[in-house]
Amino acid sequence: MSRADTPQQRPMRIAVVGDVHDQWSDDDGIALKHLQVDLVLLVGDFGNEAVEVVRSIAKLDSPKAVILGNHDAWYSATPWGRKKCPYNRQQEDRVQQQLDLLGTAHVGYGKLDFPELGLSVIGGRPFSWGGSDWTCADFYRQRYGITDFQASAARIQQAIDASSQDTLIFVGHCGPTGLGNAAEAPCGRDWKPLGGDFGDPDLRQAITYAQHQGKQVPLVTFGHMHHRLRHTQTLERQRLAIDQHPTMYLNAASVPRVVNTGSDQRRNFSIVTLSKTHQVQHISLCWLNQQHRLVTEDVIYSLDGLPTLAELA
Predict the structure, then answer these.
(1) Contact, 171 vs 65, CB < 8 A?
(2) Above 70 in pLDDT, residue 305?
(3) Where is the Calcineurin-like phosphoesterase domain (predicted)?
């Protein structure tokens, strides 16, 4: 694939890395180079406060934006987790270590401008567990001075106001409310009691704010709610929702994201293609083999007549 033109002269290619859960290696960086992407978005859950995994991701030399998930504060955010903590929290702060390693690449409650791409990435609430109950209250109060959803949404809106670009991409660990109540909806509850919208209300409020401000929001991407459902094996979670603006809401949590087939090891990335005017043209879940070649492309969305990634190879 030839990518000699600048992003402004050709469609932009974005890779979204779903929940990692300790499945990250140098091969992922090599695979991203083979995919020739312009931007990498990572939606968190790298492991249970897996500092070394985050250290490796921080070294990724592609343009990137990262948000940390609930597993990234697994031993720090809840009383249950603190009781199970395998290290001395009085001597170590592994949550802060991850934040320090990522630096400005971590967009939780913040933003990262990419003027060369003509867009800014806005981060939702970091370490989100999802749902309409304000959980981990002590954690958010101590870390961020945030005490409720309203204050959380205001913090995200500050990042929107501070962004330099009029096109915004939102990255959350969990997606926003408003994407459906069914168990198989992009943020639907797939455990008892089945059904119900388990998205983040503060992220929804911030997205609505950006849209009302006249910002172009082509993409909101997230993970947390795995494609494989807990209550049934007869169907998978819906990966995409589209609103009237139109904004695309992509759940990228294909877990496990690395699988061994016996003779091969395959890893997945969600690939989003944007036009020069930042319209979403194509979304697919791509699996690459050990030679970093595309072996499977599951097309999630495509405008009529556009070639798949495999056809562009």
Answers:
(1) yes
(2) no
(3) 12-227
User: How many separate domains does the chain show?
Assistant: 1
Q: How many CB atoms lie within 10 A of CB 156?
A: 26
Is 1 contained in some domain? Answer: no
* pLDDT tens by residue, 125-136: 999 999 999 999
- Residue 203: give its domain's CATH number: 3.60.21.10
Residues 226-250 have pLDDT tens digits of 999 999 999 999 999 999 999 999 9
CA distance linking residue 299 with residue 311, whole number of Å:
12
Q: Is 235 helix (H, G, I), strand (E, B) or coil?
A: coil
Give the gyration radius of the chain's Cα atoms. 18
Whether 3 is in a domain gets the answer no
- Checking DSSP bridges between strand 258-260 and strand 248-251, what pairing results, if any? unpaired
Other Cβ atoms closer than 10 A to 216: 18
β-bridge pairing 216-222 and 248-251: parallel
Report DSSP state, residue 58: H
